[in-house]
Design brief:
Belongs to the 4-toluene sulfonate uptake permease (TSUP) (TC 2.A.102) family. The protein is mainly alpha-helical and 257 residues long. Helices cover 77% and strands 0% of the residues. It is built from 10 helices and no strands.
Length: 257
């Protein structure tokens, strides 16, 4: 791919990776930027998905580590969710090769618009009201259902996965917002890494590009996670709703218009 030898393209990927990593660490949705950028390079769609999983794994690992260091995520409470997410991501990564994705492209915008509307009209959807940090392991059944569903979705498609994790975690477990963000980043790292292994095995990863963009996403994720922790709810809630609406608009434009 001679196009990639041009410094201007590498610089553009670096900037997009930095911004995408920042967004992913706070609310999720960095793929809204990174996937179109990779498609613009002329890469096949499945290779774009695999390469994006490589880059996103760097960003989500840094964000998860940052939340963990600030005691906003306790891995021992969530090992059932880890296992379920891993299994779901394996299923989703293989399903994307077997299932006609046209129906998903039509439905996804509606689901994500629904999240945005729910977040706008429900004051408790993205908030710390009546929430507390977990002091024991949440119910295993809920972890399995959530992890399987969202892990499969992330392996299969992925747009808006951070928003899905954040909203469902707050609703299911009554977690404070930053704890929901920490859980979301840890689980998206799990599904990203799992899907990356599958796409890599299938030969659908452009490693050089993914590593370059991934390092930039890692830096962006570190900055984003630190900003979320420092500024909290007033910073996260409006950005969350904005990004979710942008994801929905992007998907609706692609699917319907």
């Amino acid at each position: 791919m001679e196009l990639l030898l041009e410094p201007s393209h590498w610089a553009l990927l670096a900037v997009i990776g930095l911004i995408a990593g920042f967004i992913d660490a706070v609310v999720g949705g960095g793929g809204l930027l990174s996937i179109p950028a990779l498609l613009a390079l002329g890469m096949p769609p499945h290779t774009v998905l695999g390469t994006n999983k490589l880059a996103a794994s760097f960003g989500s690992s840094m964000a998860a580590w940052t939340y963990y260091r600030q005691h906003l995520f306790t891995p021992s409470f969530w090992y059932m969710a880890f296992i379920a997410t891993f299994i779901g991501a394996v299923l989703g990564s293989f399903l994307v090769y077997l299932v006609d994705t046209q129906w998903l492209e039509k439905v996804l915008p509606l689901l994500i618009i629904g999240i945005a509307i729910y977040s706008l009209v429900s004051p408790n959807a993205i908030s710390d009201i009546n929430c507390q940090a977990p002091i024991a392991k949440p119910p295993a059944k809920q972890q399995w259902l959530q992890g399987l569903a969202l892990g499969t979705y992330d392996g299969f498609a992925g747009p808006g996965i951070g928003a899905f994790w954040t909203v469902t975690s707050g609703s299911l477990y009554k977690l404070p917002l930053l704890h929901s963000c920490g859980l979301a980043r840890a689980m998206t790292f799990t599904s990203n890494l799992t899907a990356l292994a599958i796409f890599g095995w299938l030969g659908q990863v452009q490693w050089q590009i993914g590593l370059g963009m991934g390092l930039c996403m890692m830096l962006g994720s570190f900055i984003g996670a630190r900003c979320a922790i420092k500024f909290g709810m007033p910073f996260i809630r409006p950005l969350f709703i904005l990004i979710v609406l942008m994801i929905a608009a992007n998907l609706a434009w692609s699917a319907w218009l």
